[in-house]
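Researcher: Next entry in the queue.
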Amino acid sequence: MSAHLDSLRQAVSFSPDNVPLLLLLGDGCLDHFLFEEAKQHFQKALTHDPHNVNALLGVARTAYQEGNLSEAVVRAEALAAAHPKNGAVWRLLSRLAFIENHRDQAREYYAKARQADPDVRDEGLEKDLGGAPTPQPPPVPKETNRPIAAEANESDGDEESGPDSYGSNSRDDSPSNLHPDLPVEFERPKVKFEDVGGMSAVKEEIRMKIIHPLKNPDLFRQYGKKIGGGVLLYGPPGCGKTLLSRATAGEIKATFLSIGIHQVLDMWLGNSEKNLHKIFELARQNTPAILFFDEVDALASDRTTMKQSAGRNVINQFLAEMDGNDNNEGILVLGATNAPWQVDPAFRRPGRFDRVLFVPPPDEDARASIIALMAEGKPVHKLDARALAKRTKDFSGADLKAVFDIASEEKLAIAMRENRIVPITTDDLIRAAKSMQPSTKAWFESAKNYALYANQSGFYNDILAFLGIKK
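Model: Structure for this entry, 471 residues:
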C-alpha cells in the first residue's frame, strides 16, 4: 500500500472535517481501486460541503470504476447540467459514452471537455476516439435533462420540458447531496415494454396511470387526474414484476429507485421511518420518478398481526409518505409482492395502492414472445418458439430462462470438447422443459386457499378466474 495514501489517512485522522484532505484521500483510494473507502471519503466531504463539485464528481467516478454505469451516467449528466464549464465532468461523460459504444457522442463530449479546460487530457481515450476531437463551444444542457439536480441557484427556472423528460422536476436540492449516506441506487433503465413479453393488460394499466398523464398532463388535469399514484403488482415469483417496473421507468426516461428492505429498516428506533422519508423526498425532488419496493409486504405487513410498536411505526410512516400531502405528483410507487394477503388493507385505499394488478404466469402468446427474446444473441438454430410455448404451460419467465440455461449447459459441454459452436435446437429446449416442473404451482396452491376462504372483498377474484374456479 502506498506510503502517500497512509500519510493522507493519518492527516485526515487529525483533521477529519478538512474537505480538501478528504478529496485527496478519496482520489488516492480510487487510484488504488479501494472503491468503498473512496466513496466514504467523498460522501463525508459532501456532508461538510454539499455542493462541492469535486466531491460529487468523485462519487460519479467511483460508480464508473465500480462498473455501475447507469448511476455514473445519471450523476455525471446532472453535474454537466449544473457545471457546463467543468472539463473533468465532460471527460467522464465521454468515457461513459465510449463504453456504451456511442463514439460520436463520446467525441462531442471530449471536445466539450477540451473547450472547457484545455488542460483536461486523456491520451488513452483520444487514441480510442481516433485522435483529439476539435473543441466546440459547449452548449448549456437543459435543466430538463437533470434527473439529479446537483447544484443550487444555478437555474433561472425558464427552461421548458424537453421531449425526453416529460416535464421533469428541476428543483435544485440534490438528494445525493442532502443524504449522501442514503444507500439508494439511481438508475435510468434502457429496457422498455417491448422488451417484456406479454402482460398487455398490466402494461396498459401502467400506461394510463403514469405514461399517458406525463405525456398529456393538461388533458388529464381536465378530468381531475393527477400524475403518479400507486400500483401493487402481485402474483407468483419469477413472472416479471421487477422487469416490468424497470421497463416502466425506461418508457418515460424516469429516475428509477429500487428499494430493498435493507435500505429502509434500521436497528435504531426511529431511523427506519427517517429512511423512508428520505427516500420519498429523493423521489419528490427528481420527478418523474418511479419508486419500486420489491417484496413490499415486508414493509407493509398487516398491523393486526404485529405486537411490537416499531414495525407498526414504519407502516404508519409508509402510509403517510404515500399520502404525501399533495407532494407526490409525478411519482409512481410500484410495489411487488408474492404474498398480497400479508399487506395491510390500509395500503389498498384509494390514493395509495389504488390499482392492484395480478401478474399471472405468461400465457402461450406471451411465452412465445419471451422465448424469442431469450433466444436473441444465443446460438439457437431454427427456433420454433410456438412449439416450445405449447409445452411450457404455467411456466414463469424465470422458468423459461432456466430451460435455456439447461439446454445451453448441455451444448456448451459439447462445444468445449469439440472446440466449435454447437447450436441449440428447439428439440433441445423442449427436452430441457420436460425435465422441469413449473415453479408457479406451489404458489397457486397457497393462493387458492386465500382466494376461496379469505376473499370477502373480491380482492383475489383474478386468481380464481385464472384457475377457472367459480365461487
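Model: Residues 186-358 form a domain with the Rossmann fold fold (CATH 3.40.50.300).
Researcher: Noted, moving on.
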